[in-house]
Amino acid sequence: MKLKVEERKAFFVDYHDLDKFINHHYPILQSKFEFVADEEMNNDSEKEINVTGEAKWGEKEIQRGEGMYMTSALLNDACRRGLLEKGTYIISVCW
After folding, report:
1. pLDDT band at 83 (very low <50, low <70, confident <90, very high)
2. pTM flag (> 0.85)
3. For labelling alongside 95, which of 2, 34, 36, 66 has CA 20 to 30 A away?
4. DSSP letter (8 states) at residue 27
5. Within the chain, where are the H helices?
């Protein structure tokens, strides 16, 4: 029996690099962005986010510079601004 698999393209990102990227491009945020805290992530885990560049939610929070679970909104906003490519982003957490 063969294992059914699917090959996909994805962008793999370390959470430290994501934190630096967001803090650099979004100085409006009221506090320093930390992916692990924002998404309540655990050590040795990953989060997959599909970035389309479309606003689903979060624009008001971005403008106010506050909110929780903002990673998807920030990545989609960065895509709209031409800072990121559309695609699947897998953020790795390991400390």
Report:
1. very high
2. yes
3. 66
4. T
5. 15-25, 35-39, 59-64, 71-80
